[in-house]
Amino acid sequence: MVLASLNPVSYLVLGALVFCIGALGLLTRRSPLVMLMCVELMLNAVNLTFVTFAHMLDDVSGQVIVFFVLVVAAAEVVVGLGIIVAVARRRPDANADDISLLRG
Amino acid sequence: MVSLVWLIPALPLLGFLILLLVGPRLGEPVAGWLATAMVVAAFVVSVIVFIGLHGRADRTYTLSLFTWIPAGRFNVDVGFLVDPLSSAMILFVTGVGALIHCYSIGYMHGDSRFPRFFLYLNLFVFAMLMLVLGDNLLVTFLGWEGVGVCSYFLISFWFEKPANASAGKKAFITNRVGDWGFMVGIFLTWFTFGSISYTHFLPISSTAATTTATFISLMLFVGAVGKSAQLPLYLWLPDAMAGPTPVSALIHAATMVTAGVYLMVRINPMLHASSPWLSTAIAWVGVLTALFAATIAMAQTDIKKVLAYSTVSQLGYMFLAVGSGGYWAAIFHMITHAFFKALLFLGAGSVIHGMNDDQDMRHMGALRKLMPITAFCFIIGWLAISGVIPFSGFWSKDEILTYALHKSVGLYAVGLFTALLTAWYMSREVFMVFFGQAKWEENRPEPVAADAVVAGADAAEAGHDAVHPHESPWTMTFPLVVLAILAAVAGFINLPFSWYPHWLEDWLAPVTGRYGTVLTYSNTTIWLLLGVSTVVAFSGIGLAYLVFIKHRVPAEKVEPEFFLKAWYYDIGVSAFMGGPGRRWFEFLSWFDRTVIDGAVNGIGGLARGSGTVVRRVQNGYVRSYALAMTIGTVVLIVFILTRINY
Amino acid sequence: MIDTAVFAVCAAIVLCGAVGVVISRNPVHSALSLVATLFGIAVLFLQLDAELLAAVQVIVYTGAIVVLILFVIMLLGVDREDDLATEPLVGQRILAGIAVAALFGSLVLVFVGVNQHGLSGAKSQGAKLAGPLSNVTQIGRLLFTDWIFAFEITAGLLTIAVVGAVVMARRPASYEPLPEPEPMGDEAQIEDAAESEVGA
Predict the structure, then answer these.
(1) C49-101, pLDDT tens digit by residue?
(2) Chain A, nearest residue to B627 by Cα
(3) Does C136 lie at the interface with A, CB-CB under 8 angstroms?
(4) Which of B325, B380, C8, C70 is deepest in the core (most CB within 10 A)?
């Protein structure tokens, strides 16, 4: 299906918007789980952008890249949650600002 | 045989090394005999080399030991140049040196640092031999600096007294001022000729521009002025009498101070290629120094200070000869001066030894009966330096005056007047010390003003440090006798008459003959000049006899304070250095500490300060790092946006 | 016409979900908002002819990742409310707002350029999206030919991630509570520590 009436750039703008909201959340929230979810938001925005470009350039490779992004995001979430569990076991009320030992 | 020349400096060096390693264990007197043996051996090798040089056709021999500085075009070897000039010098350096080593064994008896003294003496002889034998300016400079360092060590040998240590420092620093001139001379020589080796640049010295040659000679002369104690850098020599007397004899009479004269004679082709005013200037500096020092010597009361100023004066004569073109005459006077001045110093040392280390002449008198050998030898030295015929000093001084007359009548007149003063002050010294009334009973050795001395005796102290003048041991009198014989007959190696073989002048001719002045006086003129000199010498002695033996004129009238205080020159220099000089030094020190060190430390402080500020970026919070990354991303995108061409 | 309506609705869902993730005090609410966002994006994928991706998005992202996050939330009991009023880092929120706004602005500028001049990339020859093959076939063909290397490495990556997570999250042999941490620093304390170290 070729989208005749809708400008594909609107998808791009939507993606940019979601990305920026995710970035804002990452910079502002302190809870590690919420920060992880914001990262997922940013990744999804990027996926949307890739798929839009795949559609605009008539190229499937964009979707294949999204495939890989998906896989890596899954792996990243797994490892990230492992870290959060490990940290929270020691200090249940820890948040991102408590892990600040590496400083000058 | 000539190839043995490398042994000559090597033997004293070996002595130095042995004494350095095991000196204290050898102790007295083995260390002294070892050092003496080394110098005696060097003398024997010098004689062998001298004989070997006779046989060679051009009377030159160069031996290159090894390459010292192979730096591209600047190639300097450690090499020896044996030619008539250097062979003459090594003979008397090692000969007189050996005698003084023997003397020191007796003089330094009982000193706690006996082996160290001989260590320094051997090192000195090594450095002096390198100076004389070097075949290029840099090896000569090596020896030059070496003798300066040894002079420092030896002058301040009894460094427990601060005055002695200061005298050593003064000698070294004043020499250094002259050395600056020497170094500039070396640089310019290399720059002009591409080589600093004597055999390379001296024969072609006339190819340089006159101004260049003049400047080189002038700079080397500045070095000579420092080392040979001429005006205005003579200040260190009288203070150097703080060292032991053998040091004064060896270094400040016979060898080190003659290094400047040697240098001037060595570069005489360069002097010839310079403007004529330089030679005139050298002659006038020499003769004025001679006059200046002679006036000061007239009023001194310390037996060694008289001899010190006398050395300055006689060195002035040598420079007068150099300036007048009589290069070989300068060497002649150097040789005779080495003999009689060393003799006088060693004799003075013998007197001081006998007087229990009292050096004030006003406490001596009538010593000839108690120290006969010393007195006899000292008198021979006195006659030689005063220029009494037929002793050696007469012939050499007259030779110089003849050359001076040839150059200018004014030089001759001043030189002649100085000869009168020389006879006067030396006679004064001899009469005060060996003749007249014995004064050591009345006057105790303490530093008092001239007026209070005769007022006399502190009876309470008369008992505790009784002075019994006595003759010195054979180790001290034997060198005196040898030197006395030499001082008496050395003149006969070159009498001025045309019917007499001019052994020294002919021997030195390959080095000095080409550019030296040629005298054409007839024998009658020569006899006339000799007569004038004799009259002058006897008048000096006679006048001194009238004042100091017959007491026709009171002594105070002819010993003005002005002369005693050395024309206030030394005092003036010290005052200037202590006053405005010190303020300038302190300003420089402040500048170095505050501005230069401050700049360097300031850079460090700046780095640390900025680091303290910048480290706050690393606060350990992941979120602030993420913020920084976001800002960076924005910057990157904006940058790329500006670069897009559609 | 219908495309625009679908797009508008899905965009609204996506945006509300995104805002909900960022603003919610309770992490569980954030997770549920994320689900909404993911579903919205899946529909948008469908609209862009990415059928396989839409399905994978729902299955993997929504069905696995968010569920995993919820597991951890429930397991660790971090469903307490987060303190949103205070911000310990000085200037963080303001600067974050400015930076993010600038980021959005610059991205919009890029897309405005895209809109005006068209995309500058070349259209593909061998991997046409609008070809006769079905989407699954297209992706599968590419995945096992052009992108095989990345595929294999990704497999390895997954293995490593699983091993790492197991290692990190298992209970340690000796379980001691950590010492009481230093109080959370603010700017003044950082300055004090820095000065005391410099002065020493």
Answers:
(1) 899 999 999 999 999 999 999 999 888 876 566 667 777 777 888 899 999 99
(2) A27
(3) no
(4) B380
Q: Which H helix or E strand runs over B591?
A: helix B582-591
| Helices and strands counted in chain C (H then E) | 8, 0
Chain B touched by C114 (CB under 8 Å):
no
Q: Could you tell me if B627 lies within 8 Å of chain A, comparing CB atoms?
A: yes
Task: Provide φ and ψ at B235, rounded to 5°.
Answer: -55, -25
**Model pLDDT for residues B310-347, shown as the tens digit of each residue:** 999 999 999 999 999 888 889 999 999 999 999 999 98
Question: Which two tokens mark C71?
Answer: 């597991």
Alpha helices in B228-326 (DSSP H): 236-239, 245-249, 259-266, 268-273, 276-297, 303-323
The SS3 of residue B388 is: coil
Which of C10, C43, C49 would best serve as a mutation to test chain A binding (most A beta carbons within 10 A)? Answer: C49
User: Tokens in use for B441?
Assistant: 């009973």
- The residue extents of the domains of chain A are 32-92
CA-based nearest distance B646→chain C, Å: 7
- The alpha-carbon gap from B137 to the nearest alpha carbon of chain C, in Å, equals 57
For residue B615, give the nearest of A97, A101, A104 by CB distance: A104
Are A96 and B619 within 8 A, CB to CB? Answer: no
- Residue B569, exposed/middle/buried by CB under 10 A (0-12, 13-18, 19+)? middle
Considering only CB atoms, which chain B residues are within 8 Å of C92?
Answer: 623-624, 627
Distances (CA, A) of B227 to B57, B146, B272, B274: 34, 12, 22, 22
ipTM of the complex: 0.90
pLDDT digits (tens, 9 = 90+) for B107-147: 888 888 888 999 999 999 999 999 999 999 999 999 999 99
Given a contact cutoff of 8 angstroms between Cβ atoms, the answer to whether C30 and C66 are in contact is no
Q: Which residues of chain A lie closer than 8 angstroms to C100, CB-CB?
A: 20, 23-24, 27
